[in-house]
Amino acid sequence: MDYIGFGYALTVATGGVIGYVKAGSAMSLLMGLLFGGLSAFGAYQTSQDPANFWILLGSSGFLGGMMGYRAFMSGKFMPAGLVASLSILMVIRLLPRLLK
């Protein structure tokens, strides 16, 4: 079971909900739930077959790049920098599987 992957997915989805509650951002809610769900599906697939990590890698790679850009442009760590950091850590975690 990929507990780390599921934890990451839950964190992304929860961040979207918090963004909606605090700022009224429907886009945060939509994207948080979309990428949280996509990451959860990727974690499920990775749990079933460790070689099937592509969806989790793609979703975390995309979020790492997009949220890293947003954090850089805003100069603020929260929330984009946190999501970018967690996403980059997830990519680094999956990198050895990519190199096999």
Layout of secondary structure:
Blueprint (H helix, E strand, L loop, with lengths): L2 H21 L2 H23 L5 H21 L5 H20 L1
Helix pairs in contact: 1-2, 1-4, 2-3, 3-4
Account of the 3D structure:
The mean pLDDT is 95. With 100 residues, the chain is mainly α. It has 4 helices and no strands. The two termini are 20 Å apart. Helices cover 85% and strands 0% of the residues. The chain has helices spanning 3-23, 26-48, 54-74, 80-99. The chain has one domain.
Task: Briefly say what this structure is.
The chain is mostly helical and 100 residues long.
Keywords:
mainly alpha, 85% helix, 100 residues, 4 helices
On the 0-100 scale, what is the average pLDDT? Answer: 95
| Beta-strand proportion | under 5%
The residue ranges in which pLDDT falls below 50 over 5 or more consecutive positions are: none
Number of helices: 4
Strand count, sense and closure of the main sheet?
none
Number of strands: 0
Shape: globular
How many domains make up the 3D coordinates? 1
Head-to-tail CA distance between termini: 20 Å
